[in-house]
Specification:
Chitinase A, domain 3; 4 helices; five-stranded mixed β-sheet; 160 residues; elongated; alpha+beta; Helix Hairpins; 2 domains
Length: 160
């Protein structure tokens, strides 16, 4: 999971770097050739995009730095945390849910990710397989049983 996130970040940084260093300078140059920059919407648009791309690259670089600090070996192998794949049984609805807990920036809803900052993510952090957990959700209080838990260290074969 960490490697997938790292690759995703590197890919986006590379794409944005190309835009910042190649595409946007060309757009700005073409806009400058058109003359009066005070009323040149293309020029203003390119400058705004340039600022956005710089800020996004800075943000992604910071996330890469944070990712590098994650010590998977120091993570508990028996408690819900970053990267844990969790199967819950909703005790009220009699339904099962399976998802992976991730940081908000790395969420992919189609891949079944849930943010650790979400109510369900916060409510599950630190819980163990077999435990019942009551979580306050926007729709009200819900009770879940942690049916299955595969932590990030277990996924990487570091559990023993």
């Amino acid at each position: 999971m960490l490697e997938e996130i790292r690759q995703k970040l590197e890919s986006e940084i590379e794409t944005l770097g190309h835009e910042l260093n190649v595409i946007l300078p060309e757009r700005i140059s073409l806009a400058v050739e058109q003359g009066d920059l005070r009323e040149n919407a293309e020029y203003k648009s390119a400058l705004e995009r340039q600022e956005f791309v710089r800020a996004r690259i800075e943000h992604l670089s910071q996330r890469m730095s944070e990712l590098a600090k994650i010590d998977v070996k120091a993570m508990p192998i028996d408690r819900v945390g970053f990267g844990s794949r969790v199967t819950l049984r909703d005790l009220d609805q009699e339904e099962e849910l399976t998802f992976t807990l991730v940081a908000g920036d790395f969420m992919d809803l189609e891949a079944g990710h849930v943010s650790m900052a979400s109510p369900i993510g916060k409510g599950l952090l630190g819980s163990r397989e077999g435990e019942s957990v009551t979580i306050q959700l926007p729709v009200g209080e819900r009770c879940f049983e942690v049916k299955d838990l595969v932590t990030l260290p277990q996924q990487l074969g570091l559990d023993g």
